[in-house]
Amino acid sequence: MPVVTSDAIKPSGGVSGTSQTLFRLNNGFGIIISNDVVRRCLLPKTKAPDSQELCLSVLKLWKVACRGNAENLKILMESPVSKRSIVELLTSDNPAVQQGCLALLCLYTQTPYGRRLATDNLNVHILTKNLMWSITMQQQQREEAAVTVLENFAAENKFFIQLRDVLADAVIVPFTSILRTVSKYDQHVLVSLMSAVGCLTRDDVIRCSFAHNADCWMALVDVVSNCRACDYKEVLYALLGFIMNLSAVASPAIQEHAAALCICCVDLLKDNNGDIVTRAAGVLSTVLPQSSEAVHRALQQNVVGIMHRLLKRNEPRITKYAIQTLAVCTAASRQAREELLRSDKKLSDLRHLLGSSCDETVSGNAALCFAHCLELEGIASNLLGTDIVLLLLRHCSSGRYQHRSAEKCGHCSWEAVPL
Description:
mainly alpha, ARM-type_fold, ARM-like, TTC12
């Protein structure tokens, strides 16, 4: 059987724009697709060696004909035969055919124009499902290509919109399956996958779908423990960022798994990797407000003492997370207030934040911690001789702060004056 090759439009010096134009003007795409033998070889279940070789040659020819040529990209993508084959051949039994199909998709997704053509013409539901299937096959070259395609598509708003109603089947279920067997995958691929799926969750509807999926949360909690056990630092870092993003959306699924997740994250605060510690603190700051049980478990692990020590690092991000966590804990527990006071009788670290922070969230949460601690008997006398009243009144009168923070600072300044 004669094999279609790309030699005619791929001279030794590289792809010729003239050759690509001549191929199009002479109906090269139509001639190939109208051939019955070629159409049969483009079916995903074709197993005859000659047919698979022909299929691979056609994919290579399409890639060469379309590289850098907008008009050819358009013609190929608008053909019913080719646009169906590009999606279906991702599940071919032949690894080379799968790779050839992924290479063609990579070509399309490299540019905004190509991505728009693909999202306008391909079945995004089946395409995404097949891309996720390619990742689960655990063949590194194909995994990397599939993740790259998915990540590139995630730059298109229309891709988000078309995925919203089919997200569970196309992404969440296979993604959850991958999380449950994380040790079988290459770390680089997992990090890239987290990035790609994280890009998808920029869409509010998609983020809410993930946040309300109980199976996904169960897998996320398990994989945090597994990544630490396997020393998958890069994956763990990406994973914690993904969890922070999801936990910004309150849901029963998060609340159900909050305690187990927070136990893992408090343990991670002892990690020797500062970036891991920062993100673990970030997760705690967003998850603890959603579960009283999680707060109780975290207090048992001395989260107040750990967060107080983190405040002393004077690093803006971790300070923001630590003071937010302390505000949640001191609001929920007298024990937390007493622990904070035992470690800092004059609450000098909180006073420092009130006096030096330009971040309203930080100073507002510091004021909240003060308000909670002032409920303890005798605390006001400990603050005699400090600048606390002046600091609180300054924040209360500042126009930079929202009404609620100013009101809280005013309340604290009143409570801080011993009668």
